[in-house]
Design goal:
Helix content is 75%, strand content 0%. It is an all-alpha fold and 93 residues long. Helix 1 packs antiparallel against helix 3 (61-92).
């Protein structure tokens, strides 16, 4: 972040990374767990927001390992995205 606020390029890259994160999670859970598209998107969203209702859970070891990496990476990307978004909002006021 510079004195003029976060740069647009960084913001847009994080925005794209957050969207791709949901796509990757949705496709992976659909393929590995054989869940429907809506259930896969739902689980990806619930997991990344750290809500974790527990109504869907990964059953295969490979999916559990993916989930560990997905959450550690995903939470980091989402926090960075939200931080940049709030910083942009602050600088525009």
């Amino acid at each position: 972040m510079s004195e003029t606020g976060p740069n647009d390029r960084t913001y847009h890259r994080l925005e794209l990374a957050a969207a791709l994160l949901l796509v990757v999670g949705t496709v992976t859970y659909h393929v590995l767990e054989d869940w429907g598209w809506i259930d896969s998107l739902y689980f990806s969203t619930v997991a990344l927001t750290t809500v974790g209702f527990g109504d869907l859970v990964p059953t295969r070891d490979i999916t559990k390992l993916f989930t560990v990496v997905y959450l550690l990476t995903g939470v980091t990307i989402l926090v960075s995205y939200l931080n940049t978004r709030l910083a942009r909002r602050h600088w525009r006021q």
